[in-house]
Write a structure and sequence with these properties.
- This protein has 495 residues and is α/β, with parallel strands linked by helices.
- The chain contains 15 helices and 14 strands.
- Helices cover 40% and strands 17% of the residues.
- The strands form 4 sheets. Strands 1-2-4-3-5-14 form a 6-stranded mixed beta sheet. Strands 9-11-7-12 form a 4-stranded antiparallel beta sheet.
- α4 links the parallel β3 and β4.
- Bound molecules: zinc ion (ZN) (2 copies).
- The site of one zinc ion has 4 residues, from loops.
Length: 495
């Protein structure tokens, strides 16, 4: 369990307390990694993470944090607070799993631990505990130095398909923050200056009239026909929307298995994405019109059920530069021969699929570094920090961290939790979620976030600069929560 680290990395008298805070994370390693493993074991999905929340709250409480549960009226949302006064630094933690992706741990072959069970395919067990590591490191610093400052661990449920943070943002949970920091498990270490896509998720429900499909079809009104016509209409819409938008759908209820019955009920779940919320809204309204048309054509009744939404991520170059400095100052974990062999097994299990890192590395402006890193992309573990450069890239995905980034300067790092070429939401990611490589990434990420928060506490000018950057990026736009009032978070089973 114990990680191999070069323990002293911040030398000099001004760094004594900072180093002590980071050492404290190592001292608490078995607590932190134990929680990560426990959360992996229980693998609870969106808004049902009751046991995971208990593990985290117990640990925070034992470290002297003041816990508030049921935040924003969400049972599995909580905060843990330590310290007083300015600056108020938020550390975002997630802990929800994905359904149907259960996997035997540490096995480089697809095999469910529990058929149809849940699994941590996005590494949120690591995310939640790495953020815990950061929070307790910052607490140690505040305690030792008696400096002004508050650290708040935000227990954010339902990231996967739930946008827990967006619901929390709607209720003003993040409003007191000066800065928010977080991280995500990945196959490499780094901080990127990227935005993400805003999204809306909506269920279109059609209510028809059941009838015998042969005897009296003229009396029936097919809800399934309405779903099909909506989908066909949207196929034609796709040509006439902006390039960067995405419209995905899943038919979540076809109305049953009987072709000899006119289906009285059917529903389809839509996920609409675009670089900015107003663009998503515009497409959403056009999809609504198509859905109304489908209902009119089929004589069915349409119910539009807004599920959730997320805003685009607003990058912050000031925070990114500070995180990058610490990504390089905190020693990157070193790996044993056994770990390299372990990672090689997982890398080979991904077959010939194209390494998603290639595209990222190809964008590095420095050609020498680019060449060097391209050659490293064949290694089983990417034990380096990706060079940081400013860009206007948009991540072709979404995150509810986006909503926090509209409220206060927010930034996140990635840490190498998985073998090279492991994709998030894959069985390989679940399998590696309790391994020693993943464990090392939890401690590394926690130390990098804590070190950056400590730098911010000591240099509050940077906080004000980061706020100024956020103001200038937003211009005249103010944060408006994309989830309408009255819409409540819902679990997968409660959908
Ligand atoms: Zn995910
Ligand atoms: Zn995730």
């Amino acid at each position: 369990m114990v990680c191999q680290y070069n323990k002293i990395f911040y030398r000099g008298s001004e760094f004594v307390e900072k180093q002590r805070a980071l050492d404290y994370i190592l001292e608490r390693e078995s607590l932190i990694l134990g929680i990560s493993d426990n959360i992996w074991e229980v693998a609870e999905t969106a808004f049902e993470e009751h046991k995971s929340v208990e593990y985290l709250c117990d640990a925070l409480e034992s470290e002297g944090f003041e816990i508030e549960r049921n935040v924003a009226d969400i049972e599995t949302a909580f905060t843990g607070r330590y310290g007083e006064g300015y600056p108020v630094i938020g550390i975002l933690g997630e802990f929800d799993a994905l359904s149907g992706i259960s996997q035997v741990p540490d096995l480089a072959k697809k095999e469910a631990l529990k058929e149809g069970g849940n699994g941590h395919g996005c590494g949120h067990n690591l995310l939640g505990s790495g953020s815990l590591a950061a929070a307790i490191g910052i607490k140690k610093y505040l305690m030792d130095t008696e400096k002004s400052g508050t650290v708040i661990y935000f227990g954010c449920p339902g990231e996967e398909g739930g946008s827990g943070k967006t619901f929390m943002a709607r209720e003003g949970v993040f409003d007191e923050l000066d800065i928010a920091l977080t991280w995500h498990p990945a196959s490499v270490n780094g901080v990127a200056s990227i935005s993400s896509l805003a999204n809306y998720q909506i269920l279109y429900k059609f209510h028809g009239i059941s009838a015998h499909a042969a005897a009296n079809p003229h009396d029936g009104r097919s809800a399934l026909d309405a779903v099909e016509l909506l989908n066909i209409g949207v196929q034609f819409l796709r040509e006439h929307i902006i390039q960067d938008a995405r419209i995905h759908y899943a038919i979540t209820d076809t109305g049953g298995f009987s072709p000899n019955v006119v289906q009285p009920y059917a529903e389809v779940l839509y996920l609409i994405r675009a670089p900015e919320t107003p663009q998503v809204k515009e497409i959403y309204e056009r999809v609504n019109d198509i859905a109304k048309g489908a209902a009119l054509m089929t004589g069915t009744r349409l119910e539009i059920d807004f599920v959730k939404a997320a805003s685009n991520l607003v990058p912050n170059n000031i925070l990114e530069a500070m995180l990058y400095k610490n990504l390089n100052s905190v020693p990157i974990p070193e790996y044993t021969e056994d770990e390299i062999k372990y990672a090689k097994g997982f890398m080979e299990s991904t077959g010939e699929q194209k390494n998603p890192m290639t595209g990222l590395v190809m964008k590095i402006p420095d050609s020498e570094k680019r060449k060097l890193l391209l050659s490293k992309l064949k290694e089983p573990i990417l034990d380096f920090v990706l060079p940081y450069f400013k860009s206007d890239q948009v991540l072709p995905g979404s995150t509810d961290v986006g909503d926090v980034s509209w409220i206060c300067p927010t930034s996140q790092i990635a840490a190498a939790s998985w073998s090279n070429n492991t994709a998030a939401h894959s069985w390989q990611a679940v399998s590696q979620g309790k391994g020693s490589i993943a464990h090392k990434s939890v401690i590394y990420a926690g130390q990098v976030l804590a070190a950056t928060a400590i730098d911010l506490i000591n240099n509050t000018d940077k906080i004000e600069e980061a706020k100024e950057e956020l103001r200038s990026r937003l211009g005249d736009n103010e944060y408006v929560c994309p989830i309408p009032k009255g819409v409540k978070p819902r679990s997968i089973s409660g959908r």
